[in-house]
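Troubleshooting entry. Yesterday's outputs looked truncated, so today I'm pasting the complete records for two proteins to confirm everything comes through intact. If either block looks cut off, that's the bug. Protein one:
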Amino acid sequence: MDYAAKKFGVNIVTLGPQSWDPVAHAEAVEQAIAKKPDGIVTTLWEPGAVPAIKRAMSQGIPVVVIEAVTPDSGALTFVGLDNYEAGVDTAKELIKRAGKTGKLVVSGNWGASNTDAKFKGLMDYLKANSQWELLGRVDDKATTETAIDAAKTMFNTYKDMTGVIGLDSSSGTGICLAAEELDKDIKPLAVIVHDREAPVLECVQSGDIDATIVNKTALQAYMAIQLLEAYNDEKVGLATVPISSDNKAAGVIPFPQYIYMGTQVIDKDNIQYFLAANMPKFK
């Protein structure tokens, strides 16, 4: 967001919870509406904020959803991962690194739209293309503390697992820190996680995590702001592209319904390019 703010010269105000809290998230969208902004960018992990998004749109405030989306969001568009395909990519990475057979445990924030879609993509591909056996799932609720506890439970319960998948931003951190606290060597396991929290990148460097699958988050944030700018700028004219004689009256949204980023694999071969110390600063 900082890069987009600098490039487009816009003021971006951040509202809402920093962790999984659907009620607070919906309230934050309502608070944003009250400020009468030129646009709103939000995530949509579950449908609780959909009424607020539709209310913003009805009041002429354009909304772009990023990261995760639910059906009938009411927003202009979604910019982010195709989470089902991200799950497929995860399955392919597991097979690439560990072969077509093994015993798997998956950690995730079950009930979140993106996690559930990733899990479905993962399992659909594994069932069709391998003999991997799912031993079980643990719920990390996308918080570091819970993810550590969930990973400890996983290590203590599933002694014969050969592969571990983490599907949300805290899963990999939980797996790494739990292994450290238990003094457990996880290098013999195939460990594929998601996102790029600092402990995850450290574990990729050390070889404890084989790879992490990430969204191009900087690009999705940039494109969300770019789309809102194009929508609001009469010179650009995105809102008035002649799909109909009167898009607003006709109920036409002049945006693609979904804009997918695709995934990026981070492993020991390219890790240096993703470390926070090597990233440019824009504040």
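Protein two, checking that the full record survives here as well:
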Amino acid sequence: MDFKSIKVLLADDSSTARQIIKKELIQMGFDDQNIRDAADGEQAINFLGKTEFNLIISDWYMPNMDGLELLKKVKADGRLKTIPFLMLTSESERERISEAFESAADQYIAKPFTTAPFQQT
């Protein structure tokens, strides 16, 4: 699969996590120029209003607007709701995983992670 043209929005309050995920995506073949990173859900919403993305990867716990709230806003927006949404977090409780899927997350990835879930989307 050619990932070069896929535009990714990566939301995580940890700059280190964003750097690691971005590096992994680039190694998989994503174009560095097509990966935009946001420090929280509010910044992600701002970017979504300006750019069309093909994939959203979001951490669960972030300040200002967490990943679950971001997910709900994306899936409630007719223009954005079809964008695949990967929830990324260290959270592994079944109840939280269920909550993400009930809110229409396309994939749930627990930290530490491998690149396999990214390739399934």
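Both blocks look complete. Sanity check on protein two: The chain has one domain: 8-120.
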